[in-house]
Design goal:
Elements lengths: L1 E11 L5 E11 L3 E2 L7 E2 L12 E11 L2 E10 L2 E2 L14 E2 L2 E10 L7 E9 L8 E3 L7 E3 L11 E9 L1
Antiparallel strand pairs: 1-2, 2-5, 3-4, 5-6, 6-9, 7-8, 9-10, 10-13, 11-12
Amino acid sequence: MGTDVEIGYRKQLAGGGTLSARLLATWLNENSTTARGAAKRDVAGETGDGSLPEFKSTTYLRYAKGPFSLFAQERFIGSGTLDFDNVEGVTIDDNSVDSRYYTDIGFTWGPERAATSWEIFFNVQNLFDRDPPVAASFAQFSGTRITNGRLFDFYGRRYVIGIDLSF
């Protein structure tokens, strides 16, 4: 159970371009399961191995003029708890997982849209090459490990170039 929010804005600029902005945000209040004969287990905010953060968002800004467009996107994953079964100071020293921001940018160029059209695009994902957060672990010899691969970016900075064809 949670709350999702989406806000969008578009403005025609005096020079003929268009500026668009969009925010998508999620607050997760409960992510629970109940096994037969057991108490309800709520793992909202347990971001260590596979659950979901209590808060995450994506903010998008795009400028387009004629055949060109530029965009920037910021992805945020809120901080959380490694594992609710751990007791900080008893079974683990630090049971927290840090938050992360990831920045993506891109550029597109193509003729004005028609019945048959094409567009060339270039994107850089995780522009600042942010690593996923590292958390305590007894399973690794180092005593730490990288956390949840479904939430955090494990690949680092990467580049995408391509052509989008529509017909």
